[in-house]
Amino acid sequence: MSELFEKGLKIRKEVLGEDYVNKSMAGADEFTRTMAEWSTEFCWGALWARPGLDRRTRSIVNLAMLGALNRPHELKLHVKGALKNGLTKDEIKEILLQVAVYCGVPAGIDAFRNAREAFNEAEGKS
Questions:
Q1: Where is the Carboxymuconolactone decarboxylase-like domain (predicted)?
Q2: pTM above 0.85, yes or no
Q3: Which end of the chain is less congested by CB atoms within 10 angstroms, N or C?
Q4: What total of structural domains would you count in the chain?
């Protein structure tokens, strides 16, 4: 694997948790492996490793985009990562309220529902 992939894998594990990332990578099959490796290398290694924004800010941006795009699986995952990156539940609530106003109330409602599930999972309440 490339140096960029290794850097991305390290950051991905720090943000999303080593268990999740190991399970995700191990679950990749012949068809999905390229996407798993590509997203690790480019999303995490090339983008998240850039010095222009800190991880906390990148989490804010991701939550807004994923809420706007109604991507529940990724939103839940990144809510947990945002907590690790120092965001509070109240800050996440404000981000999702902004999603609701600018992207529509249904997107906001779904984002809140998924964030609550992520909070419960992060707190071991699932």
A1: 35-116
A2: yes
A3: C
A4: 2
**What's the pLDDT tens digit per position in 77-107?**
999 999 999 999 999 999 999 999 999 999 9
Tell me, what CATH number does 73's domain have? 1.20.1290.10
Alpha-carbon gap, residue 5 to 122, rounded angstroms: 26
Please determine, for residue 116, whether its predicted confidence score (pLDDT) is greater than 90. yes
DSSP 14-79: HHH-HHHHHHHHHT--TTTHHHHHHHIIIIIIIITT-SSS-HHHHHHHHHHHHHHHT-HHHHHHHH
If asked whether residues 79 and 33 sit together in one domain, one would say no
User: Does residue 59 share a domain with residue 10?
Assistant: no
* Domain coverage including residue 103: 53-125
Closest residue by Cα to residue 21 from 53, 54, 55, 44: 44
